[in-house]
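Need tokens for this chain, all 447 residues.
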Amino acid sequence: MRERDDPTVVGRRVQHLRNQRGLTQRQLAEPAYTPAYISTVEAGRVRASDEALRHIAGRLGVAFEELAVGRPAHLATDLRLRLTEAQRVLADGRAEEAAAQYTSLLAEAERHGLGCEQASALLGLGECALETGELVGAREFFERAEACVADESLPVRVPAVRGRAVSHYLAGELRYAVYLLESALDELNRGGLHDPDALLLLYASIIGPYMDMGAHARAAQAAEFALALAPQTGDQALLARMHRSVARTLLAEGRLAEADASLAKAAELYRRLCLRTELANCHWMRGYVCAQNGELERAEGELRQAYAMLSETRAALYRSQAAVELADVLHRLGKSVEAAQLLQGVLGDFSSERGAVHAAAAHRLLGIIAEDARDTEAAEEHYVRALSLLERAGAAGDLADLCRLLGDLLRRTGRTEAALDAYRTGLGHRTAPGTTTLGPAPAQPPL
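Here are the structure tokens for all 447 residues:
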């Protein structure tokens, strides 16, 4: 609860409620206090103790909180009920509608000084912005949410930390994203804060940055940890709806503590529903590992599952990233036409500030497909565009490989000096993937 209002404001509130109920100062004071004490409270000349204010609240038939800060007792619970409604809308994939609800709820929480509810609304707005690809706005929302819970334990802060990291990752800032996620994982595991939900959220979120940095062993391990931590769930949406309905009933009956407990269960279930995006990334990672091992049919199945799950959640940017990985496997299976169509369909979802690494991967693969079709002009154009995107993101391992492809193309078309320049550029980026950007791996959870 926020700090109590000024004594003058509290006094006016007591007087208004007493007159509204037709009570005298003596009736309000008895048996513990005197009419003179009530008079000084109403005049704002004394700051009533918590004990005295609780006595007065009981005589007036209102909650202590309503006297102290002018907020009806059921307001916070009602606000949490509406926050779970917004979570449901977001879980259904209606990010813009959810954002409008969260914006209204944030304003109300700020007006009444409800810090936890402000943080929840800001987290929701951040998730909505991630879903719609508004990365700068998302980052700002997550930073504000983290500030609201700065004094809480790390598991409470993890959703905001994870949101910040993902917004940096999608903007192409890979190393900083990994730093944020690994730092949180290390602190959780070394400090014995083995919160399964927090760990699942962090491990699932770090897979993408690891993959793009070439740290494939770490990505594979993170995926296995995430899948091992994933809760065995039934129909989460049905359970969440049940808890929401129960909360409404309890709230109507004035049973606020029980309503709050039911709402907390509903909110947790909706949060887990939103984890569908993260778990889809785990299938994506498994598909990548299968492809690396030459199990292309199994890889195609895993990646198609990831793509379908992401399409259901309407997570456009994530879906487009999974499409690039799927297109690579399709090409290797000889389905180049389908691969090219898939890539052309998602290129519009990317930019240099939004999914740059996967945009580069799409152009690289389109270049290879164009080379196979002997369209060297189109292939070179795709390679050059990919090179520009990767240089901005700092994906060293991918840059070296792309420079080799471009150099080979230039050499085959008789431009030897240009080919040599491309090879030299590639050699400058040639390092063991991940070793120049990642320190020791974070401590592992006790699975």
